[in-house]
User: Fold this.
Amino acid sequence: MDANAWNERYAASELVWSAEPNRFVAEIVGPLEPGSAADIAAGEGRNAIWLVEQGWTVLATDYSDVAISRLRDRAAAVLGDRADRLTAVVADATLAVPGEGGHDLVLFSYLQLPPEQMRAALRAGLAAVRPGGRLVVVGHAGRNLEHGWGGPSERTVLYDPDEVLAHLDAAGAGAVVEVAEIRVRPVDTYDGPREALDTVVILRR
Assistant:
């Protein structure tokens, strides 16, 4: 991971990612009872800010200090008096999550890392989930390279559901797999509609 490269990317445009939450995050988390959430590699905060709007208290982390600065500014502008329910900090996704073991939800939305780093991040994320809470992983699938559209072109940073589960000893960690599947995400492009293939995994402690 190169924080400087991400800083440059975030600084180069007004908004790198959409301001709206990821569609799968909204579908999965929307029905849940709000509690404490950790959004890992939160970027500019599209999911973190939405979570606060749904009633969650959120810790948002990212490796890029530019992204965190932008997230804080957007949270203040969008959330107003509720902005104090979102704490944004610069942190390495592969290390222990602040508030370890105390979150009702830990979210990874399109964190794409090489296998060893992804394994460390996922295991740190699962360790941060309290009993009864959930780890939610949404990311560009490995099979998207051949059968989908968009996303990174380097296979080593992509992962199918079975690869996510291989990184996590769910049973050993006292977790149950609720969902492990590929989902289709429609994408509008200049050449017309396309379909991206995303991995969605949900584990409950």
About this structure: Strands lie at 36-40, 57-62, 86-90, 103-109, 129-140, 176-189, 192-204.
